Amino acid sequence: MARFIVGVLASAAFFAMELLTILNRCHHFRGFVYQHARFGPDSRSIEVAVRPRQGSAAVCSGCHQPAPGYDHLPERRFEFIPLWGFVVFFLYRMRRVHCRTCGGVMVEEVPWGDGKHQLTKAYMLFLARWARRLSWKETAEAFRTSWDKVYNAVEYVVTWGLEHRILGPIQAIGVDEIQYAKGHKYLTLVYQIDQQVTRLLWVGQERTIKSFQRFFTLIGTELAAKIEFVCSDMWQPYLKVIQEKCSQALHILDRFHIVAKMNEALDDVRAEEARRMRQEGYQPVLKKSRWLLLKRKHNLTGKQRLRLRDILRYNLKTVRAYLLKEEFQQLWEYDSPTWAGKFLDQWCRQTMRSRIEPMKKIARSLRQHRTLILNYFKAQKHFSSGIIEGLNNKAKVTMRKSYGFRTFRVLELALYHSLGKLPEPQLTHDFF
Ligand SMILES: [Zn+2]
After folding, report:
1. Strands 86-99 and 45-52: what pairing?
2. From ligand 1's centre to the CA of 327, what distance in Å?
3. List of residues 6+ apart from 15 with CB closer than 8 A
4. 106 alpha carbon to ligand 1 midpoint, in Å?
5. I need a surface site. Which of 223, 296, 385, 405 has the fewest CB within 10 A?
6. Which of 202, 124, 155 is nearest to 402 (CA)?
7. Could you give the angle at the alpha carbon of 180 between the alpha carbons of 264 and 199, nearest 5°?
């Protein structure tokens, strides 16, 4: 043990010197010098003392201009990227300046830190980048830090990114909702779905008129007036706000959502009928048929296809609903809005005669939104379900990865962080 300690101490001096060289190489700031490095009292951390370079003036954090010194504050610790399992701290006594521009005594601004953050910018950026690949919890474990620090890091990077991003021009947006908190609450997500740029533009709490209006407040009337396409589902508040704020845009009902609604209806029919057949003592024909009916035919295995063919022989409501759903898929193959419209009308007429209430409900809703559905063809199918569906799947993965505390704020940060394509603060060295 004693020999080990001697060894550690002997190498410590050499190590400290090397560390300063490395720091000067990768994390150097004009106006400041690394004075010395040593192990902390617990031998598990490294402390690097930093001081202002002789004769260099402190910069006011209010106006970012040099200002005459006033006094020093007690020493503060800034956590840097850990090295070989050691926590690294910069120790620095912040100066206060007497700033005429700001009209009083102000704390100086230091290039490695940001405001009251305990972590250095470099470390926050470092953690935030890992938090995009791993879950926040895994990131905290991997770098032996806390979930809260990872949260702070992501919050810093996202806030910086939102302040520095360029919003426009925006050609096309897609709006969608996502459930969280075990399905009891909703987020509204707005994506930019231009051909060149796809990214998350905005996250809002709830899916009300009021919350969605906030997105348009954010981008302002000038950008909103230049949006050419809006893609959404049939949720009334969204339709209303789009009508009000973006009336010049071609509003497209998202294909993915229409198909999803249709599947829900079919599933209701199946569940109801299966229950009734069980009660009345019929053969359980529909048992385990759910996925056979919901999946597209070409996605089924050979065995499943046989099973499906078997079911389709019965004269069941479920079968009729299934055939209607399958027939409806033809709609997407049309190129001309006129012919698509004719097909749609014909399908709705047929469905209204089907005496299958959930399907009739779909037909009524499609009739009501006929124009918006046909806009899909007017936009020459440019904005297919694929884009939004893909983004939404990524959003769901992100939400799972940020687990810990599923508050709105956490989800908002995590979503912007992974889908916002936000700019990041620049460092002079890439620490990865
Ligand atoms: Zn100032």
Report:
1. parallel
2. 69
3. 37
4. 7
5. 296
6. 155
7. 90
